[in-house]
From TrEMBL:
This protein's GO CC annotations: membrane
Annotated protein name in UniProt: Short-chain dehydrogenase
Any coiled-coil regions, as ranges: none
Signal found in the keyword field: no
Source organism of the structure: Streptomyces katrae
NCBIfam families: PRK08219.1 (NF006073)
Length: 205
């Protein structure tokens, strides 16, 4: 049975997944503190095989450059960029052995930066660079690397963005998370003779 590692689930969501998927288990680590991920992973059993590593976790906090404090920058860079790099590094031997697929869920902000999106966009531009570098480094080891760039998706993060923008939030106006998940599954399930490097998803309504 394939083994997939997915980042981003909090405790409540992890419990739901455990109930829905018998045999699933959790790996505990604080993505906001990537310096301690190595220690956290060393204290728990790790998968012997990983067929895909899906970097889903992300946080956002908007504001003009003139008002963003270092703490806000550090928080977004840690979760959105440094933690994915560290998780990948720690799991890389297993990923190589399995010839795994690594998926980085990026954002339209990883391609274009807009006013008041500087910290988030910087973290996502960095995530693109991480993915592109990893792809070149690990191609010979059989690892596939895909970046997915969803447009605005109906989610608690999107509700927060609308609140910070002072706009009314209507989830029906944005991409259903299930649609984004479908694109990720498509990339992971491709035959081994093919690889999707970059995949952009936009609202179709």
């Amino acid at each position: 049975m394939p083994t997939h590692v997915i980042t981003g689930a909090g405790a409540a969501r992890a419990r739901q997944l455990l109930e829905r998927y018998p045999g699933a288990r959790t790996l505990v680590g604080d993505l906001a503190d990537p310096d301690r991920l190595s220690w956290a992973f060393s204290k728990q059993p790790m998968p012997e095989r990983i067929d895909s590593l899906l970097h889903i976790a992300g946080i956002v906090d908007l504001g003009p450059v003139g008002e963003l404090r270092p703490k806000t920058w550090h928080q977004q860079l840690n979760v959105n960029l440094i933690a994915p790099a560290e998780v990948t590094r720690l799991l890389l031997p297993t990923l190589r052995a399995s010839k795994a697929t690594v998926v980085f869920v990026n954002s339209g902000a990883g391609l274009t930066a807009h006013p008041e999106w500087s910290a988030y966009a910087a973290s996502k531009h960095g995530l693109k660079a991480l993915a592109d570098s990893l792809r070149g480094e690990e191609k010979a080891n059989g690892i596939r690397v895909t970046s997915v760039y969803p447009g605005r998706t109906a989610s608690p993060m999107q509700a927060k963005v609308h609140s910070q923008e002072g706009k009314e939030y209507d989830p029906a106006a944005w991409i259903d998370p299930e649609s984004v998940a479908t694109t990720i599954v498509m990339a992971v399930d491709l035959p081994r003779d093919a690889e999707v490097n970059d995949l952009t998803v936009r609202p179709g309504r």
